[in-house]
UniProtKB/TrEMBL annotation:
Source organism: Streptomyces adustus
Family: Belongs to the LysR transcriptional regulatory family.
Domain spans labelled HTH lysR-type: 1-58
Keywords of this entry: DNA-binding, Transcription, Transcription regulation
Protein name, per record: LysR family transcriptional regulator
Claim: Zinc-finger is one of the keywords in the record: no
Pfam family, one: HTH_1
Amino acid sequence: MQFQQLQYFVAVAETRHFTRAAEAVHVAQPSLSQQIKALERELGADLFLRARGNITLTDAGEALLPLARRILADADTARHEVLELLQLRSGRVRLGATPSLCTGLLPDVLRAFHDRYPGVRLLIEESGSHDLVRELARGALDLALVVLPLPTPSPALTTVELLREDLVVVSSPEADPPGGGRQTVRVADLEGERLVMFRHGYDLRELTVAACRVEGFEPDFAVEGGEMDAVLGFVRAGLGVAVVPRMVAARAGHGLRVTPLAQPGLQRTIALAHRSDVAPPRAARELQRMLLER
């Protein structure tokens, strides 16, 4: 039983005329008649009574008609849903990002994407790069914004460098400025400062601690274990200073003093990652394009 045969059958059932049915479905009348006969042979029953030009449905035809209409309607619905998805009227994007990128980079890009494609659902997974790589590999995410180098490089993932971002030192305006109030701060100036530090597994924690050790000292933590919002809040409260991405500091608003790091400073490389063996869905590819063109 072919979809086309059901379409021809419904056309004849509704017009009660083979010629008019052929015109309705834009096919030659002999071809339509042949397909109807083939359908009847397959079903083992006549679908129409043909008497002196009067076309009526048999019992078998009456039984098939509502089923055929439903099949055609379901196919039409499927066609429209796929078309809407291809035109980005619906669908979803499962995007993973580190907490600092959720705070600094993503809000403006996601707003622009949502304004352009309001029917596409955005599902955001906020976690560290290590966890995001694992979620990508098992197919739970379409895209992920990660910090390079990856904790566990994998040929199963494709990464495209998105940007390089400077890190800055943030402190409370009420506290003594780090580095004696100079316009820039060296990593070495953080020796003796109480640091507000992110939790273990956080890319910024590992980068900051490694930079301090290169300068020959172990950082002193006033408080540790927080996510980005908590770290910024603790700094505002005067508990210590923190090293954060420039974009995060720019969006953090009032209540923070921002001091750049002296050259060569500290930077981090942000990349967009996806599985190598599966192309991201259409909506995810469009978000990927917007991120790369930002």
